[in-house]
Write a structure and sequence with these properties.
153 residues; six-stranded mixed beta sheet; globular
Amino acid sequence: MRRSAGDGGGDARHVEGELADLAAQIYANLGSEVQAPFTMEEKLTEDGTAFVNNVEYFIGAKGIPFSEGLVSEAAIGAIPYSLVLLRMEPDADIEAAKTQIKDGVDLAKWICANATDIVIDNIGDLVLMVMWNDDHSPGLGQAIHESFLGLAD
């Protein structure tokens, strides 16, 4: 299992936009060589989502100081894929939050399938977490990460 946290541009950059629009842009910029699974999106709050009342299920920890969040997961539970975007609170310790997520999130949360890889990165106050199974979806996470970093351009 590979777990990594990056430094996608540091604190000086800021990406404007609604999280749903940013997720759509990430998917749109993947290119034809990588296919993301069909996904469903939910708003993420400190309590979880409308369907899963447990924020730890999505980001591995409670108390991470975000002002808004979005979860985009495979619509079929047997496909281990999750993308989370978090807009962090002003003055949040983003590096500490990324470490909490990296160390706490369960790559086997789907029970019938496991993610093999996770990337957590940020551009300013926008944090990305993506986890996937590289055997099932080769290169997907790296492509998502690169597309995310492209939001800063």
